[in-house]
Amino acid sequence: MRYLSILTFIGVLFGSWIPNTTNSLSKKKKREPLKISVRVEADTNVVEAGEMYSARVIVEGFRADEPPNFMFRGEELVPLADGTAEVKLRAASSRFNKEGVSEQYWRMQVIVPRIWDSDTTIKIKEYLTVVKPEVQAENVNGDMLYINCSNKVNFGVEGQESARFLVSNALYNEGENGELEIVPHAENTMEDRVKVHIIKQGSLVGTKEFYLRNAPLPSLSLTAGESPLEPRQGMGLPLPNSLSLGVIADEHFAEQFAQEANYEVSDWKVMLQRNDQTIATVKSDSPIAGLATFGPDAQAGDVIVVEVIKVLRTSTQGVQEEVALDDEQRVIRIPVR
Questions:
Q1: What is the pLDDT of residues 203-218, one digit of tens each?
Q2: Residue 91: which of 47, 133, 127 has the closest Cα?
Q3: By C-alpha distance, which of 207, 228, 27 is closest to 133?
Q4: Based on the structure, what is the number of domains in the chain?
């Protein structure tokens, strides 16, 4: 080593006529730079929200003994093979355009050892199109739900066996094959809305909005004794011993919501009037009011006035609600012939 140092020193003094033995021995052979190519292969870049998306990242040109590493969302992926990794994610978006489309992307870092004698990170940004699933709701009343009634709605969602629901302003119960029982809260008004959010694998894939209506008004029927009574035709003397008040559900409502059409009269009264003066009054909290006390005083030209104070409907949930009768239903006048 001392000899080599002397030669080196002499070489510095006298120039290149003395060979630089030390430099020729210590000079390293530099690596040729790698020619790396990276490509992404996916079966499709258009994915419905809630569905799985997958893509393969393939790296070529690396040294066989130094394969690249793949970093995705802060974690190192286990390669499928040297130079190949698979990205899997569930397509999701919180905002879609009016065509129901949302442009999304994912990122990855590919770390290739010593391209230029040092590790190099290649950044990948790949785009995919997330499509909002078409949500079909089958309901006997279209986009309308009855307040405080059990509305059966069937949601047709692709892959609906994995779909779950979140419902606002209502109680709800999930059935099978996308069926949903929705009971809008009794305190809702017709200005409120019920929104059903459809979720697949933790991703919101659609929202369906329903407007609300009260159950259709029932009609009232009167029976004098055992005979149906038409108020306009009046009642003849002598008066019957009793008057019955019945509540008849709307025909279509009773057909579609038979278990919801449970009505009862809980408070009403019958008055015998003459010249707009009340002579006698009978109150009842059942469907029947006795008229025996009217008999001795009643005469032709009098009027029997029926005032309906309260009619209740009991839902399948056991909730009672007062029916908002109109004015014509609340007061019924029957002339005495």
A1: 777 789 999 999 999 9
A2: 47
A3: 207
A4: 3
